[in-house]
Amino acid sequence: MDQILNVLPTSKTAHPDMNVLKEIRKQSLENPEAFWQRFADELFWYEKNGPVYQPIDEPPYARWFPLWKTNISYNALDRNVSSWRKNKVALYWESEDGYRRTMTFYDLYKEVNKFASVLKSLGVSKGDRVTVYMPMIPELVVSLLALTRIGAIHSVIFAGFTSQAIADRVNDSCSKLIITSDVAYRRGKEIPVKDIVDEALRHTSTVEKVLVVQRGSGEVEMVEDRDIWYHDLMGSAESYVEPERLEGTFPSFILYTSGTTGKPKGATHGTAGYMVWSYFTQKLVFDVNDRDIYWCTADIGWITGHTYVVYGPLISGVTSLIYEGAPDYPRPDRWWDIVERYGVTIFYTSPTSIRMHMKFGEEWTKSHDLSSLRILGTVGEPINPEAWNWYYTHIGRQKAPIVDTWWQTETGGIMIAPQPGLAPIPLKPGSATFPLPGVDAEVYTEDGRVAAPNEKGLLVIRKPWPGQFMTLWGDPERFKSAYFTRFPGCYYPGDFAMKDEDGYFWLLGRADEVLKVAGHRIGTIELEDSLISHPAVAESAVVGKSDPIKMQVPVAFVVLRPGHMPSPQLRIELINHIRGTIGPVAAPESVYFVEKLPKTRSGKIMRRVIAAVVEDRPIGDITTIEDEASVDEVRRAYEELKMELRMRE
Ligand code: WT7
Question: Does 407 sit in the ligand 1 pocket, CB within 6 Å?
């Protein structure tokens, strides 16, 4: 684990000595006011009144730029359009079937202004919530920037989610408008996006209008007085909309993420702190410059796409690439083909994707010239050293450093990572290295003591940072209890971590009942709730099982209601039930039928015990268990199905 690679700074402006990092971080934590003022000054503000940083007594313990006024869309577009970057490429878009579209900052600026005017004409104004459910097409970027331009709060829902997930989120945010498309394309197949939205709208009451972007043939049913084609309104739209002058803490977006209850959490970000953080981290970690062709493969439906496909690159004036489709379509080298054709210089993806490409085999990379790549990034889960080395060798050809970036939906942007824009950090495969300036990360033991070197503990962030989310939409109490009570005064991200003898951070996975499936956060309780909503299920417990590619996959144990019998058909039906209620990303690998679940005497399901069986680990302490036979039950069900599957192979 301690393989150390000396990586030189890739930036001409970077400091050659790594010790400078410590010094800069110290300054940033001791005097946040002066430190962040310096970076904020690189951006545009309508007003700079009052403090940069205002400590408060309760979570999140600070407000950033509370009285300053700015607009994110202005900073991403107008600021670049008024410079020499006006006709620089802002977006390269490539469809799955190979069609290409190039948009300069000026093109994007014009389209965003027009769309902002359309939104205003439909009565959308500052503070309104708008749900966006769309595939990876340029209009998705246009939508986000048009919404932030007029101060409307966007709630993007990943296009792989189901109508029920849309309905829940629309109802929680009380969205008055939905922006969507007729269809999407994935692996050559057409996905009926608009139909999914129509179904969702049968369970909501706040949505007044549905704006539909035409991606396919446009043959969808349009509900009169509710559904409107995007292109019908854009033709007659105004060409300029004055951006709203938003106060620093005004909410810019809500992004729903899984937690430890059945209800997703609406992480709500502000305006100024988020903007400064996305800009600052984009520069520091990816060391972007005007010659770069930058590609983050994440879907805009997740936080990585918000910050590092849309806001970070555009605010930094960087050319960003968007690819619509599947990574292995039509062949496993589609990504490497794109890197070669556009001369991508910075590439950011997930460990799951890397492991998938490892499985396809390096022969798919060999026929492509990948020498343009100078920085590689990963995010979403811990990266195993094998995947790290494969990425470093076959994609980076041992020349591009890997920035392993730890962060979360809630943190707005990268928190712990190598910082080639600042100084060289010798890399250790599997370690995200050191916290960024402004990030007071530490590892605590269960009882709140600073962990010793190499002692596994829990990650905490002890001081506010500009990118921090401001609340959970409509649920300030859960905001406090989920994140700020575990260790008083600290932000608790819910991750295991360790610091080694050199002070390197190793992020070791979730410490709560949230799984990481192919980099996505899946709450086990959400899956259990979904299963219980099926008429055959009385009780259920969902745990994670290690998976060589996805890192974890959910497996479910269920107790049936009287009158229902276990059967392979019912098993498939239950898996499809989860696909239908939450989405395919959450589908369990299998469902096991048991008579009873291991529980404590107070009735709490002992998921830890079930997980141990599934992972073939020692069960550990079960003195609190109500009925020891339940463990054998779980073991029997698990062994039986494994056997059955093996026989079928
Ligand atoms: C969780 C956050 C941040 C954008 C994508 C996921 C895990 C994230 C790493 C990393 C180890 C990581 C953590 C974290 N995670 N990056 N580099 N090394 N673990 O965002 O869905 O909010 O998930 O992803 O467990 O808490 P998210």
Answer: yes
Task: Indicate the SS3 state at residue 456.
Answer: coil
Q: Residue range 129-149: average pLDDT?
A: 98
CA distance 111 to 101: 14
Q: What's the 408 CA to ligand 1 centre distance in angstroms? A: 5
State pLDDT tens for residues 458-476: 999 999 999 999 999 999 9
Among 278, 408, 416, 526, the mutation site with the greatest number of ligand 1 atoms within 8 A of its Cβ is: 408
Please report, for the chain, the start and end positions of each structural domain, with discontinuous segments joined by +. Answer: 2-326+405-506, 515-648
pLDDT value of residue 5: 54
Distance 285 CA to ligand 1 centre (A): 16
Instruction: Identify the CATH assignment for 2-326+405-506 out of 3.40.50.12780, 3.40.50.720, 3.40.50.300, 3.30.70.100.
Output: 3.40.50.12780
Measuring CA to CA, how many Å separate 171 from each of 46, 207, 493?
Answer: 34, 9, 26
E strands of 289-331, at which residues? 293-296, 319-323
DSSP 311: I
Atom number of ligand 1 nearest to Cα 407: 3
The predicted structure's pLDDT at residue 622? 85
Quick check: 590 and 545 in contact, CB under 8 A?
no
Is the entire prediction scored with pTM above 0.70? yes
Confidence of residue 16 (pLDDT cuts 50, 70, 90): low
Q: How far is the CA of 382 from the centre of ligand 1 (A)?
A: 8
For 515-648, the fitting CATH number among 2.40.50.140, 3.60.21.10, 3.90.1170.40, 3.30.300.30 is 3.30.300.30
* pLDDT level of residue 2 (50, 70, 90 thresholds): very low
Is residue 461 lining ligand 1, measured as CB closer than 6 Å?
no
